[in-house]
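Cast an eye over my tokenised protein here and flag anything odd:

===
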Amino acid sequence: MRRTTGMALLSPGGTWEPFTVVRRELRPDDIAVRVAWCGVCHTDLHAAHALAEGAPPLVPGHEFVGEVTETGSAVTAFRVGDPVAVGGVVDSCGVCPACRDGEEPFCTEYPTEAYGGTDRIDGTPTLGGYAREYVVRESFAYPLPAGLDPAAAAPLMCAGISTFEPLRRWDVGPGQLVGVVGLGGLGHLAVKFAVALGARVAVFTTSPGKEAAARELGAHEVVVSADAEAMAAQAGRFDFILDTASAKHDVTPYLHALRVDGTLCMLGIPDRYEPEPLAMAFGRKRLTASAGGGRPRTREMLDFAARHGIVADVEKVPAREVGAALARLERNDVRWRFVLDLRDLD
């Protein structure tokens, strides 16, 4: 077995510490990735809070980039030295209708996740990209386009594809008014992608102080959602609204803001939400949700990002300081995404 160093949480409420991560020996279609940068996602924070006594060590990380250091005997897509990116899904059954359609996150046998999953062959738990090396099937790794800053590109593999997929699925483009609810790790990339797709973009935020930041990202309008009068003025204006806010909130005002046949798509899904049925019925409006994207869409997203120079706005953090980064993330003290420097573990 291969061994590398990662950052792990070994017990609930414990401290993050260096940990020897065991990786499998390369199978014929595997590549070994020397991880350089790994994004820090709210999902990682939730996983830390949910860690139970007796559970395997938690090594998160599902949006990371690095360099290929070794290839299996059947690998054809990568060579040693290639820059590579890996996201949240690292395997799937490959034969169900979703997989055949390139929708691996919806694999009917459930996809293998970069961490917190189970390897489909040997049954071992998957450990994530908060580690210096990762072993992955070549078909679930992606060439990192030239010209993208590797550290800032890492969050594209989760926050990027999570926002790009629904924008493309519902054909966002020129002539449309698009709303983005929340301006954080997801929201700031949603604004960049929607603007690049040609839409006019408005950011809904509870924080008036974020107006300047939203406009710097390319937003054309900013609506303070805590202002009832400002929200009422949005009625019937929007073709599509992407809701990235994870805290519990009332979605009905956003349904009122949609035009006839408009769509409200939830990304930052809270524990529950209770839309007003008449707000959907009047205007034939849709309330839907989205969760990541498959391999074809991920490749499309990376190519689009390269053409338009889109990457996340990141704060780089030494990997050994991940505990402090997660504590700040819980306080929403980040603009807009933390990225761990795994070279810190050398």
